[in-house]
Model the fold of this input.
Amino acid sequence: MVGTEAQGGPGAHPLLTPMHARRTTDYLAFLLPHLRPGMDVLDCGCGPGSISIGVAALVAPGRLEGIDLDAERVAQATARAAEQDVTNAAFRRGDIYALPFEDARFDAAYASHVLEHLPDPVAALREVHRVLRPGGVVGVCSPDNGGIVFWPPDPHVERWLASHETIRRHDGADNLVGRRLRRVLLDAGFACAEASASMTTYGTAEECRGFVAVMTSLFAERWRRQYIELELADDAAVTALVEGLTAWSERPDAFFATPRCEAVGWVG
Done:
């Protein structure tokens, strides 16, 4: 990831690596029709490289450059490329607000699950615009927590979602940026933008339990302290919340889904 939470926050937390590693080029289905062999592509917030490797294969003999503020994620992406013998991809530490590339360096760029972590996504995309060539294309994808659906109804899930939104706002992030992606791209200087949406789902017993297990582990690592500091709950209430979320995830009919809003923009 890049930006606020990626700098030591939940966006880059080791507990989230398996969840991030499940992402493939399926998460870029909205952008893939605009990519072709020979393009040079920038991955802003490459994470462990699970999307990057697939994109590199699609644009070969073009090159993919991936950046991430987290050195461990850069190392994971580099190792993944080596393991899969992908020679047209390279990864480095980099900040989306100050990209380490010259003007008009790339034909295409993308940022998957990045902008929601940033206090100023427009500034970040202006920098992406700078490194794209005339006619270049960018794809952005961010969740929108205003459209989360889950079953069965449960007060622990509802309280967690409301409290998590408070924490994210306190950290300078925006869980509702997804619905504004066209506006963000236009404000960043892109000539036009088109939007769409998909869903990230946890619809099997294993997926629901695994998702909640990661979330409840983050309570122990970080969120418990934040709940107490922001007076969202005391220690006993946090423990009860974790237990309630775990019990919900073990329901045979548990289901959780988050919308992914997507947009494509073009340099004039």
Summary: Residues 1-11 have pLDDT under 50 and may be disordered.
